[in-house]
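Our working data are protein records whose layout never changes between entries. Getting from the letters to the tokens is the skill we practise here. To make this concrete, we reproduce a full record directly below:
***
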Amino acid sequence: MVENVYTAEGAAAILMKSTLQTVHRYLVAGKIKGFTVGRDWPITETDLHTFIEGSRPEADGSGQET
């Protein structure tokens, strides 16, 4: 199975409230897994979804964010 790969620009569009600069900071800090190819930062769909799931507030079952 072939996995989708996004550019940093594509990831910023998916994250909606993040700018390209923010995505680059996350990549450099290791918050989003990615790798460099020249000056580009390809991000796999799996790594992007892992970041999204990890950045959601966890619910404690009470319906309120913790």
In short: Strands lie at 5-6, 43-44. The radius of gyration is 13 Å.
